[in-house]
Amino acid sequence: MSYIVTPFQVSSRGLAEPVKVRFVHLFPAIATRHSDTIDCVFLVEGQRTTVAISCAALTELREKDGKYLSDQQLAEIAALFLRRTLEHGYDAARAELFIDKDQLHALGQELGYL
After folding, report:
1. I need a surface site. Which of 49, 75, 92, 95 has the fewest CB within 10 A?
2. Strand order, beta sheet including 47-54
3. Which CA distances in Å does 72 have to 7, 25, 93?
4. pTM, whole model, 2 decimals?
């Protein structure tokens, strides 16, 4: 089986044991949730967690900087954001997390995409 993001574990300050995270899928949430985001869905210890990336931020990145991010890159940015959120002690299970334009830019630069 191939993954866009390889399953990983995160040690969290808020939890006694490391949590297991598995990427499920990425899809535009414009039609499904009417949210104008690209959603990356993960399972955190079996509980659905959505990391939503702002379409407005992606549009601004494309129009101002001429940068395009692939689905693979978006999934990796979402995974890094989720990892950091969990490491800081936030219990993201059954949650929806949102990546704004500043966070998208910072994470994209850190991963070498921008």
Report:
1. 95
2. 8-10, 19-28, 37-44, 47-54, 96-99
3. 14, 11, 23
4. 0.88
pLDDT in tens, the chain (114 residues): 356 899 999 987 777 788 899 999 998 877 656 668 999 999 998 899 999 999 999 999 999 989 999 999 999 999 999 999 998 877 666 688 999 999 999 999 999 998
- d(CA 42, CA 19) in angstroms, rounded, equals 12
- Looking up residue 65, the CATH number of its domain turns out to be 3.30.160
Length of the chain: 114
Cα separation, 106 vs 54, whole angstroms: 14
Does residue 41 form part of some domain?
yes
| DSSP state at residue 109 | H
87 phi and psi, to 5 degrees? Answer: -60, -30
Domain that holds residue 30: 18-110
